[in-house]
Amino acid sequence: MKKNAKxxxxxxxxxxxxxxxMVVFVVFQLxxxxxxxxxxxxxxxxxxxxxxxxxxxxxxxxxxxFEGGDVWIxxxxxxxxxxxxxxxxxxxxxxxxxxxxxxxxxxxxxxxFKTVMYLPNLIMASAFAMLFFTLFSDNGPINxxxxxxxxxxxxxxxxxxxxxxxxxxxxxxxxxxxxxxTILLMAxxxxxxxxxxxxxEVDGATSTQVFFKITLPLLRPILVYVMxxxxxxxxxxxxxxxxxxxxTGDPMRSTMTLIMFLNKHLYSKNYGMAGALSVILFxxxxxxxxxxxxxxxxxxxxx
Amino acid sequence: MENQKKxxxxxxxxxxMIAYIVLIVVSFFCLFWFYVLFINATRSNGELQKGFxxxxxxxxxxxxxxxxxxxxxxxxxxxxxxxxxxxxAVLCVxxxxxxxxxxxxxxxxxxxxxxxxxxxxxxxxxxxxALGFVKLxxxxxxxxxxxxxxxxxxxxxxxxxxxxxxxxxxLPLSLIEAARIDxxxxxxxxxxxxxxxxxxxxxxxxxxxxxxxxxNYFTPALILHDDKKKTLPILIAQLxxxxxxxxxxxxxxxxxxxxxxxxxxxxxxxxxxIVQGVALGSVKG
Lengths: 303, 285
Description:
The complex is a heterodimer of chains A (about 300) and B (about 280).
Chain A: H1 4-7, H2 12-39, E1 42-47, E2 50-56, H3 60-68, H4 70-100, H5 110-122, H6 125-135, H7 141-148, H8 162-190, H9 195-202, H10 207-235, H11 239-244, H12 258-267, H13 271-302
Antiparallel strand pairs in A: 1-2
Chain B: H1 12-41, H2 45-50, H3 60-68, H4 74-105, H5 111-121, H6 130-139, H7 147-150, H8 157-170, H9 173-181, H10 186-197, H11 199-215, H12 218-223, H13 232-241, H14 249-281
Helix pairs in contact in B: 1-14, 3-14, 4-8, 4-11, 8-11, 11-14, 13-14
């Protein structure tokens, strides 16, 4: 551009305007990150009233973390619940996206439906979990409803059963996120040339063919983006299972997630283990973020 | 059936019917829980024990009074939640716009490192730095204070990115140039010209920041211990941790309703902008 020469004396303002962001970032994110990593190398916890450490122990915390075996169980729980939530969610979102953007169908009230579907995303996850806890408790409304219509004779113990407890958590997360995913998929399609679809229609392609041969390949970058960000979100699964099970991860720790485990260590002030676990989670999310960056990076440069 | 039109798979009518049925079922699943919440909030504990019904009762006010006079400091909770969420929203959008402006309008040497850097830290979850954050906050003597929940939102890469995207499409650099020729200072230009132009993006992000801060449970629970400083999600967790069978269930439902209905009301008023905002920002790039 031609303004280059003049612009030079303004450029220091670029730095000045960046100061608040950078200062806050360094103080509240970077320093805590460094402290967290640092703490991972120390033995530092309470047994009863006795404070142990902080003593430098090298990688001992990491060894303990992986040899203890618990972390694998919680990682598995987190993954299972994420998959239980993600698969129905992505199917539903793809289906709804296809219907909403199908010009032949001419669905009415799509704004109303979109509004309703996005609503659960904004609800306080802890309140939503508390609501589900009361609704699905052994003598709660859902059980009495099921009994009133004669579907079951005795209350079904939703929260004492690994499958149904995980199912409830997945259901809640699915409800909270499918609307968002649908809107993202639709937005991702907006930039795509509609002439492709018109051409397919002229050639007499069925809607199933259009979906698999045109829509899906075009959607792939967005699908990958949605999947990785959803995985990142799944890794952070906390509020819902924490409130639903009161932090115990019951039944039999089958709904205990990695962040709940971290939260437990933070509460019991076992800073060594908390640090080691945080570093692991940081590395996993850094890899996932890097993938997101790679997938979308090329487009972002163009702005 | 008319077979001529049916060459393209299922007839359009049948497909439309299926689409509507699925949409209605899905919408039902989205709204059902909140309907039950509303109904149950109006029923007394005795009525709630008797079983489920779809008809509201008349005990909403009684439940509400019991809750207010009970042990949970809900007014403090509400007040703290409002303070944290609104301050976060204001600070976050103001400074994110400023950061976006710095990257958008100026050419400086470190820009080509700083911009990708901000994008890269965008996805790092706050939970992984929680340990260091809690230690820092207690070293600063800011435990039981709302400040550590508000100030960190100044550095919000996601909000920055959204506003940056919007700026690219609606803030021509020639306008800034014109302001300079008129002799306006850079800071003044930002406040008087850039901010008003960014209003649509700022509004959407202010809502999102407000809501996510309203709903945030993890960090506040680690920092706030004093009953009078707690935000609503912590009070909900407390309700869950209490021996809930002893509770009056009517009160529990009113408490849940109390903490989510403000967001529902705001959403119903602004839903059009919010849904559009999600569509505009997130992946498009």
